[in-house]
Amino acid sequence: MTIFDVDIDRLAGGPAELDRYRGQVVLVVNVASRCGNTPQYAGLQSLFDTYADRGLVVLGVPCNQFAGQEPGTAAEIEEFCRTDYGVTFPLTAKVDVNGPDRHPLYRELVGDGPDVSWNFEKFLVAPDGAVAARFDPKVDPQDERLRAAVEKLTTIG
Fold this sequence. Notes:
With 157 residues, the chain is α+β, with helices and mostly antiparallel strands. Helices cover 28% and strands 15% of the residues. The protein is built from four helices and four strands; from the N terminus they run βαβααββα. Strands 2-1-3-4 form a four-stranded mixed β-sheet, covered by helices on one side.
């Protein structure tokens, strides 16, 4: 099983259908609207704009587990992302990324590794569904290490 086999809803409702991203590179990021890392939305959008035509999908996954920094409703989150940061990449329903109610998407991403440490932790998933890299929340989406990893996978894909 990979992330492409997991059921999760879109933020706006209805299934996100992650299986449609099979064969593409996916950067999964747990996001929050009231976090010190929230300005990373701009960098994530830029990354998406730069590499989408080469098969990169940025997938934002709202989570309210870290200091209650994503308290809004789906409509509020979507409006914030679109209005304040011009987000066009897909967003899922709000989920738990740690603990007993960890969403199956994050069970696949984390595996036997450590829990997600904070908002904006990034998992880079290869076209075959394997987690190729994991980046700390403080790693900016424009960081050369992250961009190099994306570049490598989108070149192979």
